[in-house]
Amino acid sequence: MSSDSLDKGYDPSGIEEKWYKYWVDNGFFKANEESDQKPYAIVIPPPNITGVLHMGHALNNTVQDIMCRHRRLCGDNVLWMPGTDHAGIATQNIVEKNLAKKGVTRDQLKREEFIDEVWKWKEHSGGAIINQLKRLGASCDWDRERFTMDEGLSDAVRKVFVRLYKEELIYQGLYIINWCPRCKTALSDLEVDHEEQDSFLYHIRYPFESGEGGLVVATTRPETMFGDTAVALNPNDQRYQDLTETHVCLPLTDRKIPIIRDDYVDTEFGTGALKVTPAHDPNDFHLGNRHNLESIKVIDDDGIMTDGAGRFNGQERFECRKQALEALEAEGFLVKKEPLKNSVGHCYRCKTVVEPSLSKQWFVKVGPLAKEAADAVREGKTRIIPENWSKTYFEWMDNIQDWCISRQIWWGHRIPVWTCKDCGKIMVEEVDPTACDSCGSKELVQETDVLDTWFSSALWPFSTMGWPEQTQLLKTFYPTNALVTGFDILFFWVARMMMMGIHFMDEVPFKDVYIHALVRDEHGKKMSKSKGNVIDPLKVIDQYGADAFRFTLAAFAAQGRDVKMSEDRVEGYRNFVNKLWNAARFTLMHLEKGPGEMDVSLLSLPEKWILSRSKATADAVHQSIETFKFNEAASAAYQFTWHEFCDWYVEAAKPALYGKEGEKRCRVVRAVISEVLENTLVMLHPFMPFVTEEIWEKLPTTSGSVMSARFPGIEDNELLVRDEAVEGDMEHVFGVISGIRNIRSTMNIPPSMQLGVSMQTMDARERRIIEENHAMIENLARLDSLEVTEPGEAPPSSATAVVNGTSIYVSLMGVIDFDKEAARLDKEIAKVTKELVAVSKRLNNESFLEKAPEDVVEKVKGIQQGLEEKNDKLRENLDRINKIAG
RNA sequence: GGGCGAAUAACUCAGUUGGUAGAGUGCAACCCUUACAAGGUUGAAGUCACAGGUUCGAGCCCUGUUUCGCCCA
Questions:
Q1: Of A197-201, A534-538, A625-629, which gets the smallest average pLDDT?
Q2: A732 backbone dihedrals φ, ψ, rounded to 5°
Q3: Which residue is nearest to nucleotide B5 (CA to C1')?
Q4: Rg (CA), chain A
């Protein structure tokens, strides 16, 4: 496709796939562990193999891709390690559901057969998200893609388990844990979502042994009463000070339970009498331990009442609640029922109400690990960005509970613990043992539980790089440079990676943790299927292109603030992509006349200016990406591209490009415009990889991929130098042109009408600038004549603007509307007067003159002088107009 | 109950050691000027949530209040 047939509008379809394939095929995403180049590594937060790309993933991976692509452009050896996690419970749920459609339960299959089914599912439909990440443009090193159930990662899991066990940091114990009766597994505390919900607080009378009176307990969960083994009172509670009874009868049963006293009881809540159910409530469990109470499990693993519930045996737990309440009411034990909002735990995978339950499980003793992990952040070995999150991190680390790691499911890393059937010896081994190392028996039984998925993801930064082998990859890339994630998995994942990384690698897993916000809908509401406000990233990409979508995410990703996404916003940035495309189209059109030729002596102000701005912008973009300020980087690039390069420079360059300034100037300007366009493409590439590559290829001045280019400004380039004097001069030219345009617009002068303008200034610099750039001013303000003089008589029948020290007179012989011009000047004067009042107020304040720093005072004085001059000139002109009109 | 964050133009948001408020979208007017109407030019629009305080000076720092959101218990 030749450049003159470049389409008028940018259409991303087809182009994105083409370049993605090109990059992959040519190894542009590959890291090199043997290289001496500066390494830069990021490990991806592994999405679930069950997952599909949502807005959160899109933001997360766009940010990582921006960082990685930027670093490659800086010449670093970048490793972006991709992969997925096996998502034990979620995956098992899906496969079970699929089996259920065929009328098969997992228990009808053998464990091995079931796991085969899961692998089959994984091969067939798992990991769809990986291809979706590719649509987004993610430049991961796909050849290194890992999965938490891979052989290598499984070895790492085993080694870690065995070592922690031998260090007594893993133990098995009978504790109260969170049980999901639907998934039929234990959950860690973190895997329980607490939701506020409307419930009732039931007041139930437990009669005294003697038969007279009784204690009224208050509970939201009457069905657990069958597991009560005491009623607790606060020893300081005046209401029960004189109570001599020692036992109460448990209604609906024939059991008697003791009355105990413990400070834990909250005298404010309910009646101050607390029913104690050690087997079904975490607080009661600890209370029970202190008082040596019996624990009676009355709800089984399916959420069904056990025979401990007497006649309610076999009922589902919530049905039992209903039935028990009816019975209590019928028998006169239910004293009252009041509405109450309370927080109820739900399984984070299936939303079933979690049952706290006494159970034998495996735990990690996290205290010592957490301390090191917290210290690493305190000592600055790892930075959390934005810094505020470190407080949340410390809060959790300092109050951490042991981590329940065993799950009663089949899909996952099976716990490497064997018990000898003959002698009861327990073996914890990296390699499956064949015989008991104590009695030699071959009758060994392996623990049936698997490990929490997060146990394996905790090892991700080093297990993916080949640990426990001492690989070259680890040597080159560990610790990684940055981890990019949402705050929702700060505890689940980041904290645990910190613990494991420090413990097993003796080094933090990453130097920076960048926490980004959530993506919400345009009104700031969390996206959810039930609300119907979910925007599918893939549909957005289909409609607007990945580049526009990525740029939108980046532009709104301000630190510490949620990203509010709406298609309108993406459309706005789609227009930006198109703008860039057309700037390139324009440039290409001119490059067809032949390549540019640089000659520094022939550069005029706009060329020097755009080169200076190009350098300033590149620096700003670079700096902002390095400091995780993606919105600032995006807006600096946007502002420059659209409003400096396209709006001003391209327009200013047209006469030269169309040959009106001679062949030499034409060549020089071609050289400048292609240089600036190239720089712009490179600095935009991290945000918009596809369109920048497409344009890069079309440019006759470039070769290879934009991915092999160097970020502008990081290598010496005599053309790319910031020159603030040049920028100041150009500002004056802009002011003059805008002043004339304003007059044209407010006086309703058609654009086709050429104007005559004279300018007067005493300022030699301003005069020089105008004279040197008169052609540009004439062109951009559409003038047929422009003269610059010393201040003198104002031309008659003209409208006036004042810019810095320059008075501009737009000659409007015969067309001037004096009323309109007077109104226009009035407005200008009002504006200036308002500013002048504010400035003068400050300068008339003696304390200000005395106490403010000198440079500030000088600056304000300068402003005042400028405003006064402007004011005077405007008034003079207003008088003149009034005189002529009057 | 503990913690974190937000409140700035009609909307969505920026705002770097305090020096007197900006952008995008939207809105209004004009314009098919040979890169782009997915465009150009010009313009209107703000008691920076409220109340105190520190300071010559506060959107920014301090204290309190209100409203909203999130996390933990």
A1: A197-201
A2: -65, -40
A3: A560
A4: 37
Higher pLDDT: A153 or A197? It is A153
Q: Are A665 and A586 in contact (CB under 8 A)?
A: no
Co-location of A216 and A344 in the same domain: yes
Q: Determine the average pLDDT of the residues in A175-182.
A: 87
The average pLDDT across A627-648 equals 92
Write out the H or E segment, with its range, that includes residue A825: helix A818-843
Residues A682 and A547 in one domain: yes
- Under 8 Å CB-to-CB from A492, ≥6 apart: which residues? A190, A454
Asked whether residue A482 falls in the same domain as residue A565, the answer is no
Q: Are A553 and A544 in contact (CB under 8 A)?
A: no
Question: What's the domain count of chain A?
Answer: 5
State which residues form the domain around A443. 416-448
Check whether residue A476 and residue A543 sit in a common domain: no
Q: Percentage of residues in chain A with pLDDT exceeding 70?
A: 98
- The gap between A755 CA and B35 C1' (Å) is 26
Cβ distance A75 to A710 under 8 Å? yes
| Within-domain flag for A60 | yes
Q: Quick check: is A26 in a domain?
A: no
Please answer whether residues A409 and A88 qualify as being in contact, where contact means their C-beta atoms are separated by less than 8 angstroms.
Answer: yes
**Is the minimum distance from the CB of A750 to strand B below 7 Å?**
yes
pLDDT at A276 over 80: yes
Residue A53: how many other CB atoms lie within 10 Å: 21
- Same domain flag for A371 and A510: yes
A646 has a pLDDT exceeding 50: yes
Structure confidence at residue A54 (pLDDT): 86
Residue nearest to nucleotide B56 (CA to C1'): A848
- Asked whether residue A558's C-beta has any atom of DNA/RNA strand B within 7 A, the reply is yes
Cβ of A4 near strand B (under 7 Å)? The reply is no
Q: What is the pLDDT of residues A283-315, one digit of tens each?
A: 888 888 888 888 888 888 888 888 887 888 888
Clarify whether residues A758 and A849 are in a common domain: yes
A526 in any annotated domain: no
ipTM of the complex: 0.94
